[in-house]
Amino acid sequence: DWFQAPALKRVMTLLNSGGAETRVVGGAVRNSLMGLPVGDIDLATTLLPEEVSGRAAAKGIKAVPTGIEHGTVTLVVDGKGYEVTTLRRDVETNGRHAQVAFGATWQEDADRRDLTINALYVGADGEVVDLVGGLKDIETKTVRFIGDAEQRIAEDYLRVLRFFRFFAHYGSGRPDTDGLKACARARTQLKTLSAERVWSEIKKLLSARDPGRALLWMRQSGVLTEILPETEKWGIDAIPGLIAAEQALGWEPDALLRLCSIVPKDAARLVTLSERLRLSNAEALALDRFARAPKPQETVTDVAFDRDLYRFGKDGMISMLKLELASARARAEGDQKAMARSARLFSLLRRAEGFVRPVLPIKGADVLAAGIPAGPKVGEILGKLEEGWIASQFNLSREDLLARIKALVGS
Ligand code: ATP
Ligand code: MG
Questions:
Q1: pTM score, two decimals?
Q2: Rounded mean pLDDT, 372-377
Q3: Rounded to 10 degrees, what is the CA torsion of 257, 211, 165, 317?
Q4: Among 30, 113, 143, 201, which is best to mutate for testing ligand 1, by the most ligand atoms less than 8 A from CB?
């Protein structure tokens, strides 16, 4: 049981002596009450940040000031981080960030949080403290803003996306009506948020076991079009088929693949998306590789398919194949053609996963050594050699290729 872990006990004992009070809050309490795995542990405390650091130092516990202006100190015990934040209230908010003041009460600390399910505390005695009606919302799996939804959203527009993210992970049935209405009304303000915060929320939302319902409500409220206009033409209809395929075939949930399934497979538009949301280089590259991977013909030979794997890269090809397969599977019931295509795609996917990219057995230096002067001609010749090597199904040897250089120079 996470609450009995010696490291947490040690932190709680340290921060609950001498009149101080410290409680676990946020995701750990929420997940534990819902019977879900507990990840990071956040704590709220009556101690000031420098008091937290001081107590830690006295016991030889590492304390990292991870957000000192927000009152957050991370204590590291047994290699695990505990984020300890001083009770605070928002004194000024502008829709993008809040100015906070310390010396708040537990009620004030709860009230400045976003959702009722995120504002439950567990004290040193193990009792749940509910100051905002979060317990009943945990029971009914209701994602609800604390206080007036519209006002809470105006303080920080990211809460629109958090509402849908937490609904995707923890909600059931329809989203809370007031929350949904307030999100729809605030949608045009989402463009004022930083791209990093938005992308991080989108990824977390798309990582839910099944983000399908949340995406439907986001589309219905106009929020999806604001943050992902690329989905407008394409739609989100591919999501249920992808989730079904993931579950049937044991694929790990993959936020980027899910994104690929709801945007057009178009390199230029995906570049725009990557730049707008400031994706990492690796993420942008993955989208680009997906966009460029050609969909296989039914009749593709293994040889021709391997050439595509070499040319376009295995990762992009795998993403493309998974989406093609998911879509074929979704249509397969009572449709012979789709069933046959799905079987073929399945075996191509196997082949792609086992593909080891061969290495061209010749380098620019070999071309130079053959007497070609340094310059653009070297790359040109190398390119032609590679084409011939690919066409030979990677069978031409180094000697074969060296012999070809002469012929190419002559031409
Ligand atoms: P998880 O870590 O599982 O994603 P969490 O609920 O712990 O979920 P964090 O981002 O770690 O989420 O934030 C910890 C707590 O801080 C939240 O539970 C919530 O009470 C509060 N919080 C975080 N972001 C906001 C926000 N934008 N507005 C209001 N409260 C917030
Ligand atoms: Mg957390």
A1: 0.91
A2: 89
A3: 0
A4: 113
